[in-house]
Amino acid sequence: MKMRFAQNICLGLTLIASAALPLPTFADKTPAVDAKASGATLPAWVLNVNSNFAGTVLFYITPNAVRLKFDKLGLVMLMKGPKWNALVYNESNKNMVDLPYERWKAKFLLRGKRVADKSIVLVPIKTGKKQTIQGVPCYQVIVKKKEAKGKPDMIMAEAWIAKDIQAPPQFNSMMKTMLDIPVDSGAPLRVFQVGKTNNKMIMVMDCYKANKTDVKASDFQPLTGYKKVKDEMAMMLDEADDPGAGADDESLDSMTKPIKPVTPAAPPKKSGGGFFDMFKSK
Fold first, then answer.
1. Number of alpha helices (DSSP H) and beta strands (DSSP E) in the chain
2. Domain 3-278, what fold?
3. If both were cysteines, with which of 4, 161, 192, 254 could 250 make a disulfide (CB 3.0 to 4.6 Å apart)?
């Protein structure tokens, strides 16, 4: 497997930080994830999401666990409480890595530069506008960056929030930091951000299918037949891979567009970075 393929695998994980959706809250007692009982099921949100940097991803979301499936990239990620460590499986080379919560949280939050930068003040403002996205009621929030005195505040992001889909703090903080939307509650189903090279709004994520249903509890159990490796890079690479390969490969941003293209302009090219450098929304 070439380095380019390994880099594409990295890229697929981006959605965890830029479009990984929060966990829902249910009125009844939250059931634990337990696959011991044959045929056990759990209430969940099943969400299909497009992103302009990671393509399409299928989410199974319950109050205690999340499963993400990157079909084209052959990746599966499982996260569940109480520890919220991330199990990442590479279906191509049958490698997997176990990332402790504190480790992936610290790395992912570094990618949300605007929220993490204390010198930048982002202010969420509810506009009062509402719309339904895939059958889920949402309200609009715009995010403004406070400018120096005498200068007008700049709109940095626009989000449509599903207030009925809530999240535990583990996901809520990470995702909203990555998307530059400091909103306390609810799940963003559609997000626009200001582009790097101009002031135009670009859609960076869009939920194109949402369904509240029952899923198999076994879907959240660790996968079998995989070799546990020491770190993220080992998970991505085959033994035959040359770490120096791909120096002349095309940019990591040269990727298949989402099913629903949101802008004709391709993302600006940039040089490849480390594993966690892939976890950035723009």
1. 6, 12
2. outer membrane lipoprotein receptor (LolB), chain A (2.50.20)
3. 254
